[in-house]
Amino acid sequence: MISPTRIRASLRSVLALLCGVVSFQALAQAGSGTPMSEAVPDNKYLWQIVQQQQHTIEALQKELRQLKNRMDSTTRRVETQEDNLEQMAEIVEDAVPAAAQTSLGGYGELHYNNTDSGKKVDFHRFVLFIGHDFSDKTRFYSELEVEHALSGNGKPGAVELEQAFIEHRVSDLFTVKAGLMLMPVGILNETHEPDTFFGVERNPVEKHILPTTWWEAGLAGHWKISQRLSADLMVSSGLNVPTSGPKAFLIRSGRQSVAKATANDGALTARFQYQPVPGLQLSAVVHQQQDITQGELGIAATLLEADAQYRNGPFGLKALVARWDLDDVVKALAPGREEQSGYYIEPSWRFGDRQNIGLFARYSMWDNNAGDDSTDTAIKQLTIGTNYWLHPQVVFKMDYQNQSGAADDDGFNLGIGYSF
């Protein structure tokens, strides 16, 4: 294929040659003394040259036309291919929009407990996450859980819908959520996948006092006040504690799980989170409900909770303190349960090439009868153990617990956990 540049160069060469021939003949005649009128080159000779160059020009012009035709054809084919690709992209986008915007995840954990209270093996939790992005601002998130492997009449397990909410990003600084969601309290309640915490079982303070895992139906807003400070505010359904029997006024027993829940009285929760330095997060929570018996006795309850999480290289530290205050009328109905409180502190250390081996120790104290000053009703537990992350989202766990105070349940635990 001859380029247009080459053709133009050839034409210039032809013209230069013709001019050179004429000039040479004129100079030759002048040098021989022949008059200018007689120095005209031989017409036959010049005509032959012109004919030869004309043939060359015509051949080049023909090749140029052929090249242009081929280029036009190639351009048409490229444009056709672009149209076809655009049509295919539209077909694919119309055919599979949901698959491209829907996400699937989950987690699970298997436990073996060998303590004074008994020996048990239990697939404690199997959870599936399903999310869907309606747009870059609006999304859906859900969490469906099977506890203890088997549910139904007379079976030990349960099937639970822990989350099902719509989240909308109003701006870069403000997000709202509506639906069934986890309460913004504590360290574990919102983030409780087994590969994210130390120990086989979730810590007893957050289990018995907060109580993890705790979800309600409601409307929530999240504000990013500054780079270091954020706030959450949630209006939600509330607890409904039993008012008699051994579980009377126990906070954990008041969770309704939004399952045909009595809604005579709601609750308000506020949380502030602050990061004063890199690696350190501080949180403070206030939760208030006017009647945790949902209209039966009119007993108000307030939760105050604060926690800290710190990570500096391989070293980590978690600490939490929480306290419920119920109306004094509870003293006459279930002495001591007008106050329920607890705290824990947990240092840890990770090492190895990928920091995939972790050691931890945790001291916990909780008391669901803290209002009773006449006797020591607090339970104390020291737990030491190790986590081994086969993969950042696959973990093997082992720990030993020593319990004292109002309860005695010593022993060891083994566990496997994963999330994806």
Q: Give the strand order, joined by hyphens, for the main sheet.
A: 1-2-3-4-5-6-7-8-9-10-11-12-13-14-15-16
Question: In this structure, how is the largest beta sheet organized?
Answer: 16 strands, antiparallel, barrel
Please identify the top-level CATH class of the largest domain: Mainly Beta
As residue ranges, the low-confidence spans are 21-39
What's the CATH topology label of the largest domain? Answer: Porin
CATH superfamily (homologous) name of the largest domain = Porin
Kindly state the number of beta strands: 16
Helix/strand/pairing class, anyone? alpha+beta
Mean pLDDT, all residues: 90
Distance between the termini: 57 Å
- SSE string, helices as H and strands as E: HHHEEEEEHEEEEEEHEEEEE
Gyration radius (Cα, Å) is 41 Å
Number of DSSP helices? 5
The proportion of strand residues reads 35-45%
Integer tally of domains: 2
Could you say which overall geometry the principal axes of the C-alpha atoms support?
elongated
Q: If classified by CATH, what would the architecture of the largest domain be?
A: Beta Barrel
Helical residue percent?
10-25%
Write the SSE topology.
Blueprint: H1 4-31, H2 43-95, H3 97-101, E1 102-115, E2 118-133, E3 138-147, E4 158-169, E5 174-182, H4 204-208, E6 215-224, E7 229-237, E8 266-274, E9 280-289, E10 301-312, E11 315-326, H5 330-333, E12 339-351, E13 357-367, E14 379-391, E15 394-405, E16 411-419
Antiparallel strand pairs: 1-2, 1-16, 2-3, 3-4, 4-5, 5-6, 6-7, 7-8, 8-9, 9-10, 10-11, 11-12, 12-13, 13-14, 14-15, 15-16
Helix pairs in contact: 1-2
